[in-house]
Specification:
3 helices, 0% strand, single chain, 64% helix, mainly alpha, elongated
Length: 50
């Protein structure tokens, strides 16, 4: 994910790594939420995209 963020010349390697960690954390929290316990993997991901 950090490599994709680095494609933009305005984004430094450190910022890309930090951004990738934030996105990963948000996705992990969203997928682990108790409201999503019965949901398939794709359902929380769709919610994140919205």
């Amino acid at each position: 994910m950090a490599a994709v963020l680095c494609r933009d010349a305005r984004v430094s390697v450190a910022d890309a790594a930090r951004g990738a960690r934030v996105v990963s954390a948000v996705m992990s929290l969203a997928m682990a939420a108790s409201v999503n316990v019965a949901a398939s993997v794709d359902e929380p991901l769709c919610d994140i995209r919205e």
